[in-house]
Design a protein that fits this description.
five-stranded mixed beta sheet; rod-shaped; alpha+beta; disordered N terminus; 479 residues
Length: 479
């Protein structure tokens, strides 16, 4: 029996640990701000400990109580009542909203009688201690916000009882049997408790429990028709009572521990939780942690529109996005927005004589100024023509002499798929870069490369001239 009892306790404690971790899983809300490590910390901290006192009538079921339907009168039972009194204290730890554990210390009197077979009555007393796991049936079946003030617990556990009983003959009071000092046996307590939350600190309720004893000797009487057989009986099981059972019903008063306790209130007909206010902490006995974590707010279309308008940046000048002459300088900065096609311009968009610019740059060594130019390509080609090579040779001379940098951007017209055009623009810009490095001796570290396919046209692609303008590599000579 000791092995069985140890196994039962191991299962009970293991179930309590599993239920605690399982409750953490259940309590996770669908929130991007959810942090499981902070579930019981900060504003989401919950009070979990409580202590209860219970007191009420007790009842015994066994050899000297069971199934005796003879009239109960003073003459035949010698005024011995079958109802006793029991009470005790309970320390409770709520592990999660649905599961908990408790340690119970109880005491009380025992008595009963039976005229048939035994013609005896008994009196005694007991003290027991048990550890049990609890399940919140109300929360499990109805959720956190129905019957909000109520808590209904089902409990099951294991423990020990210490008792001392004596059996007497009805009428004469002759001592028949005794437990001969205090005995102890294992018990399995089963109970149900109904609690109502009176205030943030106190609950009141009713407790019903039955304790199954691991013997048939609680009433100092061993089962069987012949009482003489019971003189030395201890834990055997036979007769009218296989094992003894005792218990009762009690009024329960519970005190809830914890700092700054709170009891939830209704707002606009609904239970409203405000842990972020810092006024205190709710109790895990009545509060499911997931109701404390506010879900992310989902904005309506009107709200999103309002937020967008409030955060909308100032409108930009449309000329910043427009390059009418395709020279690489936006109209906002372009001093000559109608430059002839293919012109080489400076940073202000003004057409320059590039040959003269190169000669001046080489002779004076005054450094670099910002210059824009385009190298044109034939349809679906990435080969440089003679005109493009000549421009690149001049650019290379200025770069090698004055240490200028060069930014290259490859482009294509729209007469192919986006994927193909992107590859074609990359081949064109790589052809320009290779020529500058291999043919003109430019330092590769001075060249920056990008390519955009057909996504950045500078002319209307519906005409031959427009298509030609869009097949290009843009050069931007930088200081």
């Amino acid at each position: 029996m000791k092995k069985v009892s140890r196994l039962f306790l191991s299962i009970l404690l293991g179930a309590a640990g599993i239920s605690s971790s399982l409750a953490q899983e259940i309590a996770q809300p669908n929130s991007p701000d959810y942090n499981p490590k902070a579930l019981y910390e900060g504003p989401y901290k919950l009070n979990t400990w409580s202590v209860s006192a219970h007191f009420g009538p007790g009842q015994y079921y066994g050899d000297l109580r069971e199934y005796d339907f003879f009239p109960v009168t003073k003459s035949n039972i010698d005024s011995h009542s079958e109802v006793s009194v029991q009470g005790g204290i309970t320390l409770h730890k709520q592990l999660s909203y649905l599961f908990g554990a408790k340690a119970d210390l109880s005491f009380g009197g025992l008595n009963g009688m039976k005229r048939r077979l035994y013609n005896s009555y008994f009196t005694g007393s007991y003290t027991d201690f048990s550890i049990s796991g609890t399940v919140n049936l109300k929360g499990l079946l109805m959720g956190a916000n129905k019957m909000k003030r109520w808590k209904i617990d089902l409990s099951l556990g294991a423990g020990q009882v210490w008792y001392n009983s004596k059996a007497y003959r009805l009428g004469t009071g002759e001592l028949l049997r005794s437990t001969e000092g205090t005995r102890n046996d294992w018990i399995i307590p089963l109970g149900m408790t109904f609690n109502y939350e009176l205030s943030p600190r106190f609950d009141i309720g009713l407790d019903f429990r039955a304790n199954r004893v691991n013997s048939d000797y609680l009433d100092a009487t061993y089962g069987g028709a012949d009482p003489s057989e019971a003189a030395n009986a201890t834990t055997s099981r036979k007769g009218t009572s296989a094992v003894d059972v005792y218990g009762g019903a009690s009024v329960v008063l519970t005190y809830k521990f914890g700092k700054k306790p709170l009891r939830v209130k209704k707002e606009n007909g609904k239970w409203a939780y405000h842990p972020e206010d810092g006024n205190g902490y709710y109790n895990l006995r009545y509060t499911d942690p997931k109701v404390l974590v506010k879900p992310p707010k989902i904005l309506t279309l009107e709200e999103m529109d309002s937020v967008a308008k409030a955060n909308r940046p100032e409108d930009i000048d449309p000329r910043l996005l427009l390059d009418s002459d395709g020279d690489g300088v936006s109209d906002f900065f372009d001093k000559e927005p109608n430059s002839p096609a293919g012109s080489i311009v400076d940073g202000s968009g003004r057409v320059i004589d590039f040959d003269a610019y190169v000669k001046n740059a080489l002779s004076t060594q005054l450094g670099c100024t910002e210059v824009f130019a385009n190298i044109q390509f034939k349809t679906d080609k990435s080969l440089l023509d003679d005109e493009g090579k000549e421009i690149l040779r001049n650019v290379a001379q200025v770069m090698n002499k004055n240490g200028c940098r060069l930014q290259l951007a490859g482009h294509a017209d729209r007469r192919a798929s986006d994927r193909y055009n992107l590859g074609l623009s990359k081949r064109r810009v790589e052809a320009v870069k290779d020529f500058l490095i291999k043919e003109a001796g430019v330092n590769a570290g001075k060249i920056m490369v990008d390519y955009f396919g057909s996504f950045k046209p500078i002319a209307d692609g519906s005409s031959r001239e427009g298509l030609q303008k869009n097949r290009r590599v843009e050069l931007r000579l930088l200081p």
